[in-house]
Every structure is written in C-alpha cells, then in structure tokens.
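SAMPLE LOG
Freezer: B-3
Tube label: C17
Construct: single chain, 260 aa
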Amino acid sequence: GLTLQSAELQLQAVDVEPDLFPVSIRALRGPIRFHSQGLRIGPLEGRLGRSTLSIAGDAKFGRENHEFNLSVQSPELVFGETLAAALPETVRASLHPLRVRDPFEIEVNVRKNATLPRIDWDLVARLPGVTVDHESLPQPLRNVRGTVTADPSGFRGQELLAEYAGATLRADFAAPATCDQSVAFDLDGVVLDESSRSAVPPAFLPLWDRVSPRGKLRVEAGKLTRTRADDGQPVWNLGATLRVNDLALLGFGELEGIDG
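STRUCTURE (predicted):
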C-alpha cells in the first residue's frame, strides 16, 4: 500500500472556529505540513476581530495518546466581550472586574502530552501603557505598564506602573483561581483636596466625608487582600503605612499641619 511521508496544505483566507478556543478566526493564511507522525502548523497569520494573530505549533498522533503544542501571539490584541466569553470560567472570574480599553501584546501557549492529564496553558501579556477600568475604582488607571502572566492556577503581575488621579502607582498582584486576591502597592504624589473626592472608592467615601482631609499623602507597603466569608461574600482587608505632609483634617476643626 501507499504510505504518506509528507504533504503541505497552503491556507488562503480560511475562516475557522476551533473547538479548543470557541472564537472565530478569520482570513487564515499559511502552511500546514503533514508528516508520518503528525503535522506542523504555520506560522499562520489571521485576524481575531480587530486583532492580528500569528499561530504556530505541531501535533503528533499516537495510537493511544495525542500530543500538541500551540503558540498564539498578537502584537495588538483588543480584549472585548466576545473574547472574554471564550475564556475558562476561572479566568473570566479573575478578569470580571477589569476592562482594558487599549490594545496590548499577548502570547498564549497551549499544550497536551502523555504526562498531562488535561490540556495545559499559560499566557504572557505585555502592557505598553494602556487604560484600565476597575469596577471598584471611580476613575480609570492610566498609562498601565508592565507584564502580566497567567496559567490555570491564576494571574500574576509584577512591578506594574500606572497613574491614578494624578498619583503614581507601583503594584504587584496575585489573583489565584480560588478567587482570593492580593495586591501589594505603593502610591506616591497623592494630593488631598476637594477635587480628590471623585477618585475615592465608594467604600471609603463615608470616612472621607467625615474627616475632610487636605494635604499630601504617600502610601507605602500597601497590602489589599480579598478572601471569602463563610456565606461566600467577598471580604476586603487593607493595610498600609501612610506618610503625610502638611495634612489637615477639616472634619476635626483646627487639626492641621500634621507631618509624619
């Protein structure tokens, strides 16, 4: 009989909806090469919504186990609701409070082999200075820069830089798949005046209105954590060291000129 040693299929503007990642990838172009043990994919070029994609990888087919490695990259991913809906539930839960307004670079790697009981994956997102909305913050985080990594255990970000209400934010965060979260941060250049009230998270507005602070503030070694109570409701805890300069607490009358 005949044995196929090798062959090549050239894609020309092909649209696909893969079962592995239920989104529509449009206008795929590039080679798929078949050989005696499997196939080699790409590099393929295509589009996911408004974003360009590059896809490459290989697969081996055995009698009992199949193996594959696949890399998907985009230099300008636009993260919208359609893409978010296609993500695993644990990933969607971590990203639910966030909305990234601008494109960013991303690389996703997906793999399966005989030693893995299920499909494994990881991703790296590089933020070049994007604007991010968070449901707990009344103003957006602007010019967010840094690298975020993720895998089935959760999301992590290290040495992220951003601007919030005119102040400079430096942060590391971890968002495990358990829904517990922690953020370590420093916040520098905070000016406390009447216009600052619009940047205060709603949970802290009663305290703000009571003390009516004025002056300058630096937050050092801040730690914000979220856990779950027995009834499943989120519980937030905040700890930090505050450095103040010429602070006045108008809600307490003549209490002003505080440094330390």
